[in-house]
Please model this.
Amino acid sequence: MKSYLKSLIAEGEHLQQDFKFAINDSRKIARSLAAFANTEGGRLLVGVKDNGRVAGVSSDEEFYMVDAAAKRYCRPPVAFEPREHDFDGKTVVEIIVPKSDKKPHKAPAKDGKYKVYVRVKDQNLLANRILLKVWLRQKKNRGTFFQLKEPEQKLLTWLNNKENCITHSKFSRIASISRNKAEKILVNLIVLGIIDINLTENGAFYFLKEQTEEHETHANPYPHIQKTNLNSF
Model:
């Protein structure tokens, strides 16, 4: 069991793992649980400092705080599996959170308002409106079809030839369209798997996803989209 923990700790904090020295605020830990559930799932190792040193905790108290975070401060509640490990006489509590099919899960922000968090590398970041709309569309599992008109062409040309990413506001400006229309286009292209979103502390950036060899050699690299005004692409 010690070797198991040592191997986990050696990985450090990442997309699916976070260290917690102790839990003294269920609201704060709820953000981590919600972020894991909203992304790819993950684990908390409670009783481990940021530098990987094992400090140990009181397992009963930590479980109570996590249980409150998952059931009382996550909306909807987040499922988790607790495990207790002994590490040289010190207790480490492992909290395993599976990826959820009930997302989005919300948790209280510092201002007390409930917001949606996602896990990005080793951070919990706020999800934006576009990502939330993508999730909603994916949950409804409806087909997406639209014509590749001038704004879409400008976006894909920009991402392919000029820059490797773009913001919502910049897309709206270069395409001379409203922010609402730009948002709808970004959502459509993400759902179709043509572009993707990168959330950062400085905002959301959109980039062109790598196409398969089949698409790269196809006369139309996006065969599931009907093109118009091809001369401007």
